[in-house]
Design goal:
Chain lengths: ~160, ~100, ~280
Amino acid sequence: MNNERRQILKGAGAAAVVAVAAGAGLLKPGNVFAADWNKAAFEAKDVATAMAGIGATGAAESDQIVVDAPNIAENGSRVPVKVTSKIANTEHIIILAEKNTNPLIADFALSNGADGFISTAIKLGATGNVRAVVKAGGKVYTAAKEVKVTIGGCGG
Amino acid sequence: MSGIRIKAAMSGDNAVVKCLMQHPMETGFRKDAKTGQLIPAHFINHVTATVAGKTVLDAQWGGAISANPFLEFRVAGAKSGDQVVISWEDNKGEKDSADATIA
Amino acid sequence: MKKFILALASLGIVFGAIAAHASPESDRMKVVNFLEHKYPDIKFDDYVYGALAFDPDAKSQYDSIMDFPPFLDVIDQGKKMWETPFKNGKTYAECMPNGGKMIAGNYPMYDEKLGKVVTFEDLINQCRVKNGEQPYSNGDMKTMGVLTSYARTLSDGMKMNIKVDSPGAVKAFDNGKNLFYKRHGQLNFACASCHLEAAGNRLRSEILSPVVGQAVHFPVFRGGSNLVTLQERFVGCFKMIRQVPDQPGSTRFNDLEYFMSYMSNGLPLHASVFRK
């Protein structure tokens, strides 16, 4: 029990360090990518830690981001999600599912003419927000859409 | 043979690139229905895409991208005939790569 | 006694002739009219989408996933099975009518010589046996399931065209019809309870798909990966109403498929698709 707590604290600490480093501009997003997989952020078990891990704490809600996801997922194992960012010079599109065991799903760095657009399919463990985070021009923006997940199904 | 399928075509001024990758994308949280044992995590954690030799997408993934991942992105300034290369690497160090020409 | 049965049988024929309105075609029209009356906004051709036709949110997910289906690899595996010759060097294509193309909509077909319904899966097994191979179990998704997930795509676009045109065929059709309308299982449901009377309604979180259109799109890949054939789906339905299911390929299931496929006559085939 104690051990577990210690590990969570350690994880949170590491994420906080990354967040501080990112916030201070010590790590450029591009460098983070060319380097290692963002373990602290991907293994975070709550949204706040995951957001901190990707340097998105305090991201501003934006209506310039459209999260196109279903109201009710046909099947939680494959939920189509499209994120469109109308924010100029979108450098990153990040997708999180707030109720997943590990909320952070993917971080897409876009460059050399790639539009502010990503379409993919994700797993959702429970009803909750699918959140998109956009990084552009040194700022961080976010928007979310709730997707309901039901169990069962007839498959007809 | 690569396990990545790519469809790339121009739509107006943008190249629309769609791809499907063969991968189980095991989160590590799922139990084997027969044995009750956890299935070890096995997922793509890094994806890159280049168009005409320039990196347009560099992504990190967790295990919650669906099995046999689908990915679509759009690139301005690309043209018909440009080569698209998509590559992935997973948490076990396995790799795959495929290329296609924008139609 | 024998005379009595004979008399009953002839009476049946006479009665059948008088009650001409109870033909398979009038049965189908009744079902189609019932649905069209209840759901005037749904186009006949959209019945191929099943429950998705009633739910734009679900349909748009289907469209997204079908844009690049995650199960293409399984279909490729089925293609390889289809193209790999038997030990005697012959292939499925050589053994089947029209090389196996644009024929699935004719099945199930009533075979007068065998005196029973032959499904597309049975046709595949007939080919296998004729060429010295062991038949597949109709319920084995790894063999019959994977093979048909490709073989049925060779008939994509063909319209379902089931014929019931002999006394034996009518008997098999009626057998399937009885199973469809008869209540059974611990929960006392008929197939018709959900897939005709309550079709389009919600059962908790599920929209119930109508019988019209159910036979044209199997096999399905549930959740994008779990391969399920039509008769394997029967097994699932039977379990849900707490009725001991048959093995896929049983006479009863084949007759039910015969009836259900007739109910989809005129709809275009489209295998193999995503379902929830």
